[in-house]
């Protein structure tokens, strides 16, 4: 469950969300780098979800590249030793999407890179 061997990327994403609402943050996925995202929420939030979406020139939410498998108010996408790796040989634009899927309240998330 460790992500301590990874460096934070960008600032902490924070929001006070109702059920079904999201916060999003753009990111450039570098080739050869390994990404993890950790999100946590305070009660009464009961479910937080994390996804990495490709940014496409076409309208719409973009292809989901990765999503967490956790349940509860804390989610980790890319637990050690796993992570999300950009398979392209070049930098790729993407966005981190954090959703409150149960309850409502304060949520925060941080992206890490190795």
Mean pLDDT across all amino acids: 91
- The low-confidence runs, each spanning 5 or more residues with pLDDT under 50, are none
Fraction in beta strands: over 45%
Structural class: mainly beta
Instruction: Provide the gyration radius in Å.
Output: 14 Å
Largest sheet: 5 strands, antiparallel
How many β-strand stretches?
9
End-to-end separation in angstroms reads 15 Å
Sequence of secondary-structure elements: EEEEEEEEE
Portion of residues in helices? Answer: under 10%
The rough form would be described as globular
Description:
- The protein is mainly β and 114 residues long.
- Helix content is 0%, strand content 57%.
- The chain has strands spanning 7-17, 22-29, 34-41, 47-54, 64-67, 74-77, 84-85, 92-102, 105-113.
- Strands 1, 3, 6, 7 and 9 form a five-stranded antiparallel beta sheet that branches.
- The two termini are 15 Å apart.
- The model has no long low-confidence stretch (mean pLDDT 91).
Brief account:
This protein is an all-beta fold and 114 residues long.
Features:
114 residues; mainly beta; five-stranded antiparallel sheet; four-stranded antiparallel sheet; 9 strands
């Amino acid at each position: 469950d460790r992500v301590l061997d990874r460096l934070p990327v960008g600032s902490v994403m924070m929001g006070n969300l109702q059920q079904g609402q999201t916060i999003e943050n753009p990111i450039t996925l570098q080739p050869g780098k390994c990404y993890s995202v950790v999100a946590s929420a305070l009660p009464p939030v009961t479910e937080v979800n994390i996804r990495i979406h490709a940014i496409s020139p076409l309208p719409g939410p973009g292809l989901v590249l990765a999503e967490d498998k956790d349940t509860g108010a804390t989610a980790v996408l890319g637990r050690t030793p796993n992570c999300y790796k950009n398979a392209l040989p070049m930098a790729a634009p993407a966005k981190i999407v954090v959703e409150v899927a149960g309850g409502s309240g304060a949520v925060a998330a941080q992206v890490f890179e190795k």
